[in-house]
Amino acid sequence: MSKTVAVSFEEDSVKIVHASLKSGSLSVEKTDIVPTIEFDAYLKNEEATDFAVTCEFKEAFHGTLNTPVVKPQYLVKIIESEIRKALNETNLSFIYTNLGERVIENKKVLEIFYYAVRSEEVKDIVGRFYDHGKTVSALYPSVFAAAAVLDLEQSGEAGMGVYSTGKEKVAFFTKDRNIQFIRTYEAFDPGLTDFDIQNINMTISYCFQNIRISPASIFLMGNLSEASEVSTLPSAPLACLTKSRNIVCENETFMEYLLPIVSYYVPKASNILSREFKNLYMLRRYMTYATRAFAAAALLILGLTVFETRGIIDKKEAIAAALKSHDDLQVIYNDYSEKKDRIQRFLPVISFINQQPADLRVLLVALGEAHLEGLKLNTIEASTKDRNSYTVTVKGAGYTSTYASLQSSFDGLINYLSINKSINVQSKTLNVSDKSFLIKLEFRNQG
Question: Which residues pair with 96 in a beta bridge?
Answer without folding.
Answer: 114
